[in-house]
User: Fold this.
Amino acid sequence: MTTPAARVLEQAGQAHLVAHAQTLAPELSAAFLAGAAAFPWEALRASVTGEGPRLPELRPPQTLTFGRQANEPELVARVGRLGQGLLAGGRVAALLLAGGQGTRLGHDGPKGDVVFGPEPTRTLYRIHAERIAAASRRAGRPVPLFVLVSESTEAATRAAFADPTIYGLESDQVQILVQDALPALDDDGRALLAGPARLALSPDGHGGAFGALVRSGVLASLRAREIDVLTTFQVDNPLGRPLDPVMLGWMVERRLQAIGKAVRKATPDEQVGVFARDLRGRTRIVEYSELPAGSDAVPLEPSEAPLVMGSIAIHGFSVRWLTELAAAGLELPLHRARKRVPHQTPDGMSIEPAEPNAWKLERFLFDLFPETIRAEVHEVRREWEFAPVKNATGADSLVTARVLAEAEIRRWHLARGLPVPEQPALRPLEIDGPADA
Assistant:
């Protein structure tokens, strides 16, 4: 007898999963079918077999330029006071996006557990936690910290934050959120198996944060606690400042629903998303992998500047606005990426492909930006706030990030009139009360 779950899968073009279930023990078969049928197959298959999201015509965004802010110190100081007032009033929370593994860095575990050094306890997790702790001390109250993890990073991350007080945080200041996973699909939109009764799954991208906030009840809780702004930041940028009072102050000054930090791209082919504006005037961020060839000249008018404002993945979002989007049932669009996915055929044969063979699907958190009518791009100085750790060696590696971190520690001490430490790398990446914290 065909079960409802089996009928759902057959209608969704996943009949091979039903056939596989028939080779399993009855209880295992029923659980496998029920779990597989719960995925939004129509949307998943369309993202692979269809054309996918179309890139609109774009032009450079309006930007709160670093040059303007540098020339108007009184404005920046006033905006910064507004942001510090938000922090002091307990109106801000932060979300650390930490679902990725450190495989490319030679680390078997979460990227957040990668040792930044020089001490073995100075992980990326510790650096970010100490920054939140320092901002909390300046605010006079703890800033809630949420950490988004995937199934593969959850256990190690919970262990890393089992005792937040070792980082200077309160014992109840950190909460772990788990993002969803989505099946890998072949070119015909059929799901791959990782093993008997197991789909080949991968995390649903940093855009999974939105769904995790809604499902967990955290978003509703933030609204009930009268928290106005949720900032988000990536675990692989040790110089990231998600509680920057100036960024928060612009949220108040401009009554924004969203804001994103930007730096000018170092090279035309730098692998960062770019800020842009569509023909309706909406701000958006385009992932570097989805930009067309020659995208450095993608603006609508030849007289306009190229798209050079790169996103460093630090955002601020209005909690009230996010709550409204959730109530309206917003689902962020799916994006596909061609990847090498080891898998098992329904009859049990293991496949280890040498080349990319399947599609992994994910959502991007920055796809929230086109939903807003009040967003700003906040340009910051690259060497002060952007030290990505993406590679084991070479550009954007631990080595380059450590050099930038040492320079920033020296700058903070000089700005405060303090002696520069002989070994900056041994100092925390945040000190109480730096001049431009």
Summary: Residues 11 and 22 are 17 Å apart (CA to CA).
